[in-house]
Amino acid sequence: MGYDQYSELSRHTRAVASGFYDRPVTETLKGRELDPEMDPKKALLREARDSDKHPESLAIIIVLDDTGSMLMVPQEMIGHGLPKIVSGIMEAGILHPQILFMAVGDHVDRAPLQVGQFESSDELIDKWLTKVWLEEGGGGNQGEDYELAWFFASQITSIDCFEKRGQKGFLFTIGDEGPHEFVSMRGLDNKIGGENKDWRSFELLAEAQKTYNVYHIHLTETGSGERQNAEGRWRTMLGENLIIARRHEDVHEIIYKTIVNSVERPSLKEVVKAETKAEEVGSVEIPHTPIKML
Question: How many structural domains compose the chain?
Fold first, then answer.
């Protein structure tokens, strides 16, 4: 996946034609059930691969909370957030992002996990974003199943940035609740597939952190009564990789700045030197851009 190019102009043209900027998110994401292509039971593997157009792909997973209190985030993401994330990353010199959207709810919901594909083109990234079903479930068990995204990323994705270059991908969950301490995967087999053992959440986090830089963006504007307790639980698990957002409009900036500030890119002097050398041999060779660990 992820072989085509991202075009901000193409995206803007389609967004205007489709009404992304003005139409309520509930109309854009108007499905009333899980899209079969987003069903995790049918996802044998999700891959972020290098290609001729994208020789140094960078895997990025963005996980939306699809419960009722969080509808403003997919609204902002569809309207303005997604193109700002991609353009911010690319303008900083990270030229080959491949983005996969997931959505999580609660284990009591009909679709506690939804999974797209890694893509590079504006049209295909939008395809998966707009397939998300806003189930608007969740409820009073003091948490949502963000851990399912860690499970899927660690068990059912394969990313060239890590496997070829030792460069971790990025995984961002976004929500206003805390993590659960324990995940009963056996109770979810009929919803996410497989025959899985039960996990403690910190174990799933540790598995995901082997190949991804894992962050949670905790949104406080919804006024959740469990906010302080949730922040404490997140801080215990993620430390500095917990990011507090006061406004949903800030989420896109947090994502692209976190990525840009965490990836070492060649200096202008290095790029000029490489291009000059490449011209001498009749080809263009861009220096490798390793990741700086947080």
Answer: 2
Pair 231, 218: CB distance under 8 Å: yes
Is the domain of 212 the same as that of 199? yes
Domain limits for position 281: 267-294
Residues with Cβ < 8 Å from 34, sequence gap 6 or more? Answer: 110, 111, 114, 133
pLDDT under 70 in the chain at which residues? 1-3, 30, 137-142, 223-228, 265-294
Whether 37 and 76 share a structural domain: yes
Predicted TM-score (pTM) of the model is 0.86
DSSP for 96-153, written as a single string: -EEEEEEEE--TTSS-SEEE---B-SHHHHHHHHTT--------SSS---THHHHHHH
**Per residue in 63-99, pLDDT tens?**
999 887 888 999 899 988 999 999 999 999 999 999 9
Rounded (10°) CA dihedral 263, 266, 268, 269: 150
pLDDT recorded at residue 283: 39
Q: Are residues 243 and 273 in the same domain?
A: no
For residue 1, being part of any structural domain is answered with no
